[in-house]
Amino acid sequence: MLQIKNLHASVEDKDILKGINLTVNAGEVHAIMGPNGAGKSTLASIIAGNENYEVSEGEILLEGEDISELAPEERAHKGVFLSFQYPVEIPGVSVTNFMKTAINESRKANGIEEMPANEMLKLIREKSELLEIDRKFLSRSLNEGFSGGEKKRNEIFQMAMMQPKLAILDETDSGLDIDALRIVANGVNKLKSQDNAVVVITHYQRLLDYIIPDFVHVLMDGKIVKSGGKELAYELEEKGYDWIKAEMV
Ligand code: ADP
Ligand code: MG
Ligand code: MG
What we know:
alpha/beta
C-alpha cells in the first residue's frame, strides 16, 4: 500500500526527516511513536502532500506509484486520508453536505459519475450507525462550535465515508480526552479491512490500548530507529525513549 524509501525533508533549511524507510501493507495497522519534535507530524504532512516542506531525496509510493510530485488533492483522490487536514469551520454547510460534495469531487477526479442520491443516503446511514453518530449531528454546520470529541467524531465519519486506502491519523500533542480516544479507536477498528491500511501517529501509548497495531516504529530525530510489534509500545510507555538513544550509541 505505502512504501517510503530514503525520505529526506527539510523546512527553512532545517533538516527534519533524515532518511525514512517504511513499508505498510494492505490490512496492516502501523503505529509511529516518538518524542516531541521527532518529525512525526512532518512525515504525515509530507505523505499527504503538504507543500511547506522541501523533499530533497527519496520516494513515496502508493500501490507502487510514486505520488511524491502530486498535489494534496490528487493524493486524496487516490485514497490518502490525513486526519486534521481540514479542521475548517464552514458555517451553513452541514456535515452531510460537506461529505456529499467531497465524495462526488473525488469520484469526478477518478472519472466516476456522481453517487446516486439513494446510494449516498444509504452510505450515510450505514456509516453513521456504525459509528453511533446521531442525525442531529449530521445536520450541524461543519466544525462550528464542535467540541474536541465532536471534531474527532466528524473526522472519523469523514474517513468512514471516504473509505481511504491509506488513513493516517495524527493524534497530535493536544491531549485527547478519553471519549475522543475511544471514538477514534472504535472508528479505526470498525473500518480496517484487508483492502486498506492505517498509520496511527501518537506521542503516548494510551491510544494503542484501543487500537492494536501490527507494527510499532520509533521515530527519533528524523529517523526510524527501532521497529517491533505491539509490545514495543508498552516498553516505551514503561521506559520512555532514552534507552533507545543509549542502544544507538
Ligand atoms: P512531532 O510531530 O514528532 O512532534 P514535528 O514533525 O511537528 O514533530 O516537528 C519536527 C521538527 O520540525 C520540530 O523541531 C519542529 O519545530 C520542526 N518543524 C516542523 N514544521 C515546521 C515548520 N513549518 N517550520 C519550522 N519548523 C518546523
Ligand atoms: Mg510535536
Ligand atoms: Mg506531531
